[in-house]
Amino acid sequence: MRVRLNLRNRILAVVAVALAGIVVAASSATANPVGVNGNSTIAAQVKHRVNTLPWYGVFDNLQYQVNGSEVILSGQVVSDHSVTKDDIQKAVEKISGVTKVVNNIEILPLSGFDDQIRRAEYRTIFSTSDLGRYTMGSIPPVHIIVANGHVTLEGKVMNKMDRNVAGIAANTVPGVFSVSNNLRIGE
Hints:
The chain is α/β, with parallel strands linked by helices. Helices cover 41% and strands 27% of the residues. A 4-stranded mixed sheet has the order 1-2-3-4, covered by helices on one side. Strands 5, 6, 7 and 8 form a 4-stranded mixed sheet that branches. The longest helix has 27 residues, at 2-28.
């Protein structure tokens, strides 16, 4: 009887963790607003446009700031997805009330070395038992940015432990020159 209860508790814990991961993925599947000063309707529309980009993924990082009717775009996109940089600018320019779009999105350099690091970082970080739940959703809440062998983690995680585990995992990948862990907690 005791073993059965223990197994039931384990199953319930696994289900709870899976549901928490789904909630995090659904609520965090957004671009990271740097700051929103001004029209919240414009900010909501920018957020929607960013989230519906067809090529926006785990190796890209898009951020925006709304200052009245001006939208400032920033972040990084993988060079073979450079269409994203122009696509997001065109999409944001079509939003009613937007008078100016400043596009500061950086296109990451084309590099087979960086592509290898991206794949290795993805496997290493998300194969960690605590972090696999962050792969759920169309846009994962954790973004891995690699530029010339330097790795930056962007996005959101549920708690400080997940942030620390992601940073430690990222640092174990061979060939990486440095890792900056900019993951935010909560929200």
